[in-house]
């Protein structure tokens, strides 16, 4: 595991905070740290701490690699940016979001950030089957947070359905501008549906377990 000595003025984040900042699941960030892909330090209690400067370096390196024009990830990145913008504009007006207090609203937003990051990883990966387990765990976390907030299953699925719709709309509108071939576009849509199906089924199953 990579380690850093604490430098003066450096901002350090917990595993959960760093994962939210990167838009990935904490399990993914823990694996990267264990593999030495991203540096961190350990507290006396053996908890990971990530320097903000290291997160910025890591993010810039990955974004640079993702700009290879031969990769259909260009479509995925652009579509996700559009989905984030449309979702941030619409969520405050959603009835299910208005019903949440500030703390629970922030919790749901962080889960949404994890979903965005996980989706980009899955669409960019050659295989990505291992990411489906993270998608299932994310769905369970979302269901638990929604149940704790007193949301019905219908309301809990509202955000996931909205996210799926925005991604599909972005796919259709960006095909020509991003010059993504119809076959690549169809493959990405199929993968998107595979991932989101796992998330939504996990939400439903978690709610059913509580009945």
Describe what you observe in this structure:
With about 210 residues, the chain is mainly alpha-helical. About 70% of the residues lie in helices and about 5% in strands. It has nine helices and three strands, in the order βααββααααααα. The protein has helices spanning about 15-20, 25-35, 50-65, 75-90, 95-100, 100-125, 130-150, 155-175, 180-210, and strands at about 10-15, 40, 50. Strands 1-3-2 form a three-stranded antiparallel beta sheet. β2 (about 40) and β3 form a beta hairpin. It is globular. The relative contact order is 0.12.
Question: Tags for this entry?
Answer:
211 residues; mainly alpha; 9 helices; 3 strands
What strand order characterises the main sheet?
1-3-2
What summary fits the major beta sheet? 3 strands, antiparallel
Order of helices and strands: EHHEEHHHHHHH
Ends apart, CA distance between termini: 42 Å
Please mark out the parts with pLDDT under 50 across 5 or more consecutive residues, or reply none: 1-6, 64-72
Instruction: Give me the count of strands.
Output: 3
C-alpha geometry: globular
- Multimeric state of these chains? single chain
Summarize the helices and strands and which ones pair or pack.
Elements: E1 12-14, H1 15-22, H2 26-34, E2 41-42, E3 48-51, H3 52-66, H4 73-90, H5 95-98, H6 102-124, H7 129-148, H8 153-177, H9 182-209
Antiparallel strand pairs: 1-3, 2-3
